[in-house]
Amino acid sequence: MSAFGDALTRLASAQKSAKGAPAYSRFVNRKLGRVLAAASYVVGLTPNQVTAVSALFTFTGIALIALVEPALWLGVAVCLALVVGYAFDAADGQLARLRGGGSPSGEYLDHMVDSLKISALHSAVLISFYRFFDLDRAAYLLIPIGFTIVAAVMFFGMILKDLLARAHRAAAGAPPPAPQAPSTLRSLLVIPTDYGLLCASFLLLGVEDVFFPLYALIFAGNLLFLAAASVKWFREVAALASPEPVRETAGR
Questions:
Q1: Distance CA 79, CA 140 (A)
Q2: C-alpha separations of 82 from 65, 79, 102 in Å
Q3: How far is the first Cα of the chain from the last one, in angstroms, to the nearest whole number?
Q4: What is the sign of the dihedral through the CA atoms of 135, 140, 142 and 143?
Q5: What is the CATH number of domain 3-11+19-172+187-238?
């Protein structure tokens, strides 16, 4: 078997749980990332180098949004840049697992790039709306501003919830939770929060009358999800402080 094929086979059994992952991220992006991770392994790239490649594609797409007047060709270019950047973003973690595990510095770098990406993307949309779109109300500019806030808070909330849960398990000496089977229905229901959907929406960047309402609709879906998820996450974190129930033992 070729080195690439062997790496691809090994990666198939080294995947993160798909529980909670939206449809594009689960069914498309992870598979693209697996191929890129295998190719990166063969050519000798490190996970941090793959993160840098992801950032290069992603921020090229973001710069195009802010600097170039929308047109059909621009939508295709931006979509491709963001999609490739997202695929490499999935590849860096898979490559790390293929090489025997990631590092704290690699995880830090990955999350820092992600946090910059989600804020910069919507800021670029705001600039594009202001410079190039024929909006009849200035209040419409609040949509990308709101999306910036929602995306940043959602990312931070997910990261912090997982970090607190991991710290609690470490302090209690508890094992990680058993993997749960992912739900296809849930993956479809949370599509509005899928970064892959947002990337694909930029295909229509050059069609103002379509892109603007689509972007606003995706924002509304993210806002509603965050409102509901924040309550759920708070309850999960609050449960970490609950005392364990006393278990009676037979025979005293």
A1: 23
A2: 11, 5, 24
A3: 61
A4: negative
A5: 1.20.120.1760
